[in-house]
Amino acid sequence: MSQKTLSIVEQRDVNVTQSTNNGIPILRIEHPQCHAALSLYAGHVLSWQPKGHSDVFWLSENTHYQDGKAIRGGIPLCWPWFGAKEGEVNHGFARTSLWQLTKVTSSDEGVEVVLTFEGDAKAATWPFAFKVTQTLFFGEEFSQTIDIANTGEYDFEHDGALHSYFSVSQPEQTCVPELSQVRFFDKLDGSEKTKTLNDCRGPKDRIYFTHQDVQLLDYGLNRNIKLSAHGTSTWILWNPGTESADAMADVHAGGEKEFVCLEAGFTEPLTLSAGDSVSIRQVIKVSHIS
User: Fold this and answer.
1) How many angstroms separate the CA atoms of 6 and 10, rounded?
2) Hey, which end of the chain has fewer CB within 10 Å, N or C?
C-alpha cells in the first residue's frame, strides 16, 4: 500500500482518503456509522462494516490488485455480460477497467460516492458506446445503484449481476429461506429444478427465478443480512466448494468456507435502445437474528 494519501473529505468524525495498492487507487471511508473501502479500478466495493457488526463483505487474502485481473471478493460488477464469453474477460470488462471518481458527499447518515465509466467499443464482440454511473451509499445501511446509458447510435444487448461476496461464519451455518421451493437453473448440471435450500455450502451455482426481497441468515454470527433489489430478475447463489476453490489461485486456502455469494442479477440478455438508459439497484441492511 502506498504511503501517499490524498484527503478527499476531512471533517469532524469523517475521513475519506485515497491511496494506492500496487498502483490501484483505493478509497477508504471512516464515518461514525461505518468503515468502508472501494477500488476505483473496477468500481469495486471492497468492504463495508456498519457500526456494531463485523465486515459484511468477504475479500480474499490472495486477490489481485493488478490491471487486467479481477478482484476476488467484495462486489464485482458483472457487465455488460454475465458469465463466460469466448475470447473476452469473464463477466465483462466493467470489472477490469478504471472508473472515475465523480463526487463524494458526507452527511450524518453516511457517505455517498459517485463513480463513472464510459467508452466505446471496449470489447471486440461488444462494439457499443455507453456510460455507466455507479452511486454508492455507505452508512448504517448500504445501497448500490447502477445507471446504464446507451450513448451510441445502435441498440445493444446486455446482462449482468452485482456479484456480492458475503462474509459468513460457515456456509453450512447459513440459509436463504425465501429461496426454498423457488425454481432455479442449476449451472452445475444444466437442469431446472425446485428443491428445499437447507444451507449454502458448496458446490452450488444456481440462478433463482425470483427478485423478491431475501435474507441471508447466518446462525454462526447471529446475523441477518437483508437484501432488496430493483431492476433485476434473479438471485444467483454461489459457493465453489473446496475442490473448485483449490484450483483458484486468488482464493486463499479455506476461503470458500468463509463466504457465500448472493447476487442480484439479470442473466438473460436485455435490449437497451440507442439513447435510452436503465437502472439496477440493491439495498443491504444488517441486523441480529431475532
Assistant:
1) 10
2) C
Q: Quickly state the pLDDT bin for 206 (edges 50, 70, 90).
A: very high
Nearest to 95 by CA among 128, 127, 117: 117
Cα gap 180→99, rounded to integer Å = 37
What would the pLDDT profile of 214-235 be if each residue is shown by its tens digit?
A: 999 999 999 999 999 999 999 9
Distance CA 62, CA 74 (A): 13
Q: Distance between CA atoms of 158 and 132, rounded to whole angstroms?
A: 13
How many Å apart are CA 161 and CA 125, to the nearest integer? 19
Look up residue 147 and give its three cell numbers. 445507471
Q: Distance between CA 200 and CA 226 in Å, rounded?
A: 16
Q: Say how many residues make up the chain.
A: 290
Sheet holding 277-288, edge to edge: 100-106, 110-120, 129-139, 142-150, 277-288, 223-230, 214-218, 174-175
Task: Decide: pTM greater than 0.85.
Answer: yes
Q: What is the mean pLDDT of residues 113-127?
A: 96
Q: Count CB atoms within 10 A of the CB of residue 24.
A: 21
Burial of 123 (0-12, 13-18, 19+ CB in 10 A): middle
C-alpha cell read off for 219:
446462525
Under DSSP, the state recorded for 99 is P
Three-class secondary structure of residue 144 per DSSP: strand
Contact 208, 264 (CB under 8 A): no
